[in-house]
Every structure is written in C-alpha cells, then in structure tokens.
Specification:
With 252 residues, the protein is an alpha/beta fold. The chain folds into two domains: 108 residues, Cobalt-precorrin-4 Transmethylase, domain 1 (3-Layer(aba) Sandwich), CATH 3.40.1010.10; 118 residues, Tetrapyrrole methylase, C-terminal domain (Methyltransferase, Cobalt-precorrin-4 Transmethylase, Domain 2), CATH 3.30.950.10. The chain contains seven helices and ten strands. The structure holds S-adenosyl-L-homocysteine.
C-alpha cells in the first residue's frame, strides 16, 4: 500500500494526525526533499528506508514503490503542503494503476493556508472578495492560454501565486495589464510556518523590488488583493444578530 501524504507547509507540527501515524508505521518513505521539513522524518521507525525524491526521476520513484510493494512494505510518499496542488501525483498514480498497486491520499495543510496564517489573513472578506484564484506564472511548465494571470486578474479577486517568485517583474506586468490597480495590496510570504518565515506587505507594483530588497528568490507565495490590508468589508451574515441560521434564530 502506498499513502500519498501531505506534509503541511513546513512546521513539523502542521502535518495531520493521520499523516503522522502513517509516517510512524512506514517501511519506506519517499519525501520531496526540496520543500518537506526533514524534521518530520524523526518519527519514522529505525528500520524505515528513506529516499529524497528531489534527486530522483519519476521512474526511480516508481521503482522504489514497486519494490516495496513486492516486499509487502508500506510506503509513504510525502509531498509538501497538500499533494493536490502542484504535487505531480497524477503521473505517479496512473503508473500505480497500471501496475495494480493500491494507494490512497491523506490531505495536508497547503502553504497557501500557511501563508494566510502568517499574516492573519482572511482571503474571503464579504464585499471585498469571495473567491481565491490559485495559480502560477508560466515557467518551464506551461500554463493553458485561457489561464494566464492577466485573464484571472480582471476579476480583482484574491489571488495566490505559487512557483512564481523568480518572475515577479513579469507578474507585476500581467497583474496590472489584467486589471489590478498598481497600488492594490500584495504580500510575499517566504517559508510560511517554518522557523525562518518572513512576510512583507507591498503593492502589486512593488512586488519585484520588495523580493529583491529581502533576497527572496524561491519558496515563497505571492498574495494579491484588497484582503491583504483588511480593506473595508461587510461583517459576516453568519454572526449577525438579525440573521437566522439553522442553528440560531435572528432577532429584528
Ligand atoms: N503542494 C504544495 C505546493 C507545491 S509547489 C502546497 O500545497 O503548498 C511548490 C511551491 O509552493 C513553492 O515554489 C512555493 O511557491 C510554494 N510553497 C511551498 N511551501 C511554502 C511555504 N512554506 N511558504 C511559502 N511558499 C511555499
């Protein structure tokens, strides 16, 4: 059995209870060494075989999984954040399907949640934004034409950009071209929830210079939108005394 497990955004205690248990029971762990906190591996058994996938190809990862399965060992494939975002899990799962090897997924705390926590942000403020666009700039991995940042920018919704820290000048251009004002609040969160976490509030037009000033080139998320500075918002209906819900009768 292979468990795909979300390691969380960085802090060792932000893995789920289930994920932690799988790690404790694993005979084999293949972890994404570029971003997963190696401290998480402390909870593995002494006999556990540990592989760093940052140095491996997909074929090598699959070979380790296949071998473990032949030996009836339990494997944890540990991905950063939540595996469902930019995790390259589908290609692994498709091969496992072909090989008839069983697997399941255990969610994790994505770094976009860790970044919100770093700034005590609510991404969905009433009357400000009720949507979160999670996307990336096109790098070596292409982005479908209809999903260009400029196209999403026209909504002025909250936007969180993964994998884009090296492309901030281009990003600024696309955000503004798409419809955010130059002074729309933005933030850069480096290594959210890690001990070395850093976060900076700036604006859409100062993203590149802010990152440069602080030497941030990778492992960061970019957050864009008025929610970053807690823009004037409407209080929530859910907790409004006049609002009736399934659990509470409102009073006029
Ligand atoms: N599955 C992961 C994302 C993997 S893609 C998740 O759910 O978080 C890798 C990108 O995620 C990095 O380039 C960076 O943009 C972002 N990232 C991962 N961990 C981060 C962290 N702790 N702080 C800020 N950004 C992070």
């Amino acid at each position: 059995m292979i468990h795909f497990v979300g390691a969380g955004p960085g802090a060792e205690d932000l893995i789920t209870v289930r994920g932690q248990r799988y790690l404790e029971q694993a005979d084999v762990v293949i972890y994404a060494g570029s971003l997963v906190n190696p401290g998480l591996l402390k909870s593995t058994k002494e006999t556990c075989e540990i592989y760093n996938s940052a140095k491996m190809t997909l074929e090598e990862v699959l070979e380790v999984m296949e071998q473990a399965d032949r030996e009836q060992k339990m494997t944890v494939r540990l991905h950063t954040g939540d595996p469902c975002l930019y995790g390259a899990i589908r290609e692994q799962m498709d091969h496992l399907d072909e090989l008839g090897i069983a697997y399941d997924s255990c969610p994790g705390v994505s770094s976009f949640c860790g970044a919100a926590a770093a700034l005590n942000l609510e991404y969905t403020l009433p009357e400000v934004s009720q949507s979160v666009v999670i996307t990336r700039m096109e790098g070596r991995t292409p982005v479908p034409a209809k999903e260009k940042v400029a196209a999403f920018a026209s909504h002025n919704a909250t936007m969180v950009l993964f994998l884009s820290t090296g492309l901030l000048e281009k990003l600024e251009g696309q955000l503004i071209e798409g419809g955010y004002k130059e002074d729309t609040p933005a933030a850069i969160v480096y290594k959210a929830t890690w001990p070395e976490e850093e976060s900076y509030i700036c604006t859409v037009s100062t993203l590149a210079e802010t990152a440069k000033a602080h030497g941030i080139t990778k492992t960061a998320l970019i957050i864009v939108g008025d929610v970053v500075t807690h823009h004037a918002y409407e209080r929530s209906k859910l907790y409004d005394p006049e609002f009736t819900t399934e659990f509470r009768q409102g009073v006029k």
